[in-house]
Amino acid sequence: MRFIICGSGSEIAQGLADRLDRDGHQVSGVTGRSLQTPGGRWDVLILAHGQLAPIDRFFECDMSEWVGGVMVNAIYPLSCLRSAWPERNDRATVIFMGGPNMMRTSPTYTAYRAGKAILESLAETLEIEYPGIKFRVLHPGVVNTRIHQQTLQAGRKAWNYERVMKIVNGTEPTMGHDEVYMRLKALL
To answer: Is the pTM of this model over 0.70?
Structure first.
């Protein structure tokens, strides 16, 4: 199978790419915030863009930074999907990288949460609009990666600052990259 990973610079995306490659799949990636894809036919498109910032209560966030956060978490992946769409194989699968548990609140992460909620909603809608193509959301769980540095930089503005300190220090259990890969395989 051919996998394309957009936002492949994230540690979770890199972990997935390494494991997919190890299992004999062809993997291409686009790092950073590129809105273009590598091109060529694909079976699975993983959209792994994400950032936590800005982290603060909604009305304390700079609006342009807040909109930028929603752009990274929702509009960039959707733009990559539109770019890659013509090259999909029949019965392709699109995987959006999910965020927080949408059944629980996550104050001070409103741009992140709003962007990921857009993806959750669109996955359901696109599944109906384009039968035969699978649209899924991968929820990796809490993984100790460098994205948590954004919370540490926000300091006490982040409602979960103490918990993230434990995650980064390794004193709170987190998901490993093998477990995230198992979740991906379950979606496929």
So the answer is: yes
